[in-house]
Specification:
This is Phenylacetate-CoA oxygenase, PaaG subunit. One of its GO terms (biological process) is phenylacetate catabolic process. It holds the Pfam family PaaA_PaaC. InterPro entries: Aromatic_CoA_ox/epox, Ferritin-like, Ferritin-like_SF, PaaA, PaaA_PaaC. The chain has 337 residues and is mainly alpha-helical. It has a single domain, classed as Up-down Bundle (Ferritin). 69% of the residues lie in helices and 2% in strands. It has a two-stranded antiparallel sheet. Strand 1 and strand 2 form a beta hairpin. Helix 5 runs antiparallel to helix 8, helix 7 packs antiparallel against helix 8 and helix 7 packs parallel to helix 9. The radius of gyration is 23 Å and the shape is globular. It starts with a helix and ends with a helix. It binds fe (ii) ion (FE2) (2 copies). The site of one fe (ii) ion has 5 residues, from helix 5 and helix 8.
Length: 337
């Protein structure tokens, strides 16, 4: 946040030369493209920014399982079911890597989960839209995972080591997700007129919410400038959105589909696809909890968390038993040493 950044610099100036030196050395490491690791000194604001970003990212992976999980039992073939199951399991894994990366910053996973369940923490606005037909599973893989890749590839070079390393593996899996989604769309578009109409309908509903996934326009983005200085974020929201549009429009045309934007046009001078105005009021409403599925998603998450309590308790009891057994076995040996 720009104002926060100024305040942070003011605070450093007030804290004296020693503190200012630490900040300068930290920034120099960032400029030199060194990775910051959990035990390294870091400014408190850097730590807080990462905790917020990584935990929001983790929550998005976990909540993102819900709209697609909805179609596992109704997948049109065994092959589709197996691929969708694998994809949804991957998303659970992404959530776990990311909660683990957040924990290296000194926060407890339980607290982060509580923040999600009681509504203090945000997750991606996109997962508050419904999956009405099988074509939505294709559209999500193609567009939502495609947008996620645009966002996440630059995060593989994020200055914070554990986040950057988690993103490398996640991006490989996201690429599989995007392809399986596109392949579903391709199959539908080469199918019957009804199937093609289903694919078109899914594109019509998911296109604009996907453009919103990149966050508010740069002119209104609160966190961008300081995150860029810290090399957490390498491209602005608008830059990433444009990259996504440029990559995705030719793919849609290859499918023979039309984008729900009469202003979409190729600008030969810039080499970019120009697009119409995004309805930011819709985005604000969804973030405020008033999207089509916000309440349903959070209810499902809370129910799943409550239903899984016995698993967490049993896992903890089992880990405790193993640890006691290991220390009992190691006891006499270490005493002898
Ligand atoms: Fe993911
Ligand atoms: Fe994914």
């Amino acid at each position: 946040m720009y104002t926060q950044a100024l305040n942070a610099r003011d605070a450093v100036a007030e804290a004296g030369p020693e503190e200012a030196g630490r900040h300068a050395r930290f920034q120099a490491r960032i400029e030199a493209e060194e990775r910051i690791e959990p035990n390294d000194w870091m400014p408190e604001a850097y730590r807080r920014t990462l905790v917020r970003q990584i935990s929001q990212h983790a929550h998005s992976e976990i909540v993102g399982m819900l709209p697609e999980g909805n179609w596992i039992t109704r997948a049109p073939s065994l092959k589709r079911k197996a691929a969708l199951l694998a994809k949804v399991q991957d998303e659970a894994g992404h959530g776990l890597y990311l909660y683990a990366a957040a924990e290296t910053l000194g926060v407890a996973r339980e607290d982060l989960v509580d923040q999600l369940l009681d509504g203090r923490a945000k997750y991606s606005s996109i997962f508050n839209y419904p999956t009405l037909t099988w074509a939505d599973i294709g559209a999500i893989g193609w567009l939502v995972d495609g947008a996620a890749i645009m966002n996440q590839i630059p995060l593989c070079r994020c200055s914070y080591g554990p986040y950057a390393r988690a993103m490398i593996r996640i991006c490989k899996e996201e690429s599989f997700h995007q392809r399986q989604g596109y392949e579903i769309m391709l199959t539908l578009c080469r199918g019957t007129p009804e199937q093609k109409a289903m694919a078109q309908d899914a594109l019509n509903r998911w296109w604009w919410p996907c453009l919103m996934m990149f966050g508010p326009p740069d002119s209104e983005s609160q966190h961008s400038e300081q995150s860029a200085r810290w090399k957490i974020k390498r491209f602005s929201n608008d830059e990433l959105r444009q990259k996504f549009v440029d990559a995705t429009v030719p793919q849609g045309h290859h499918l023979g589909l039309a984008f729900p934007d009469p202003e979409l046009a190729y600008d030969a001078e810039t080499g970019h696809w120009r697009f119409g105005a995004i309805d930011w009021e819709e985005f604000r409403q969804v973030l405020a909890g008033n999207g089509p599925c916000n309440r349903q998603r959070m209810r499902q998450r809370r129910d799943a968390h409550a239903a899984g309590a016995w698993v967490r308790e049993a896992a903890l009891a089992h880990a405790g038993k193993r640890a006691r057994r290991a220390s009992a076995e190691a006891g006499p040996a270490s005493a002898a040493a």
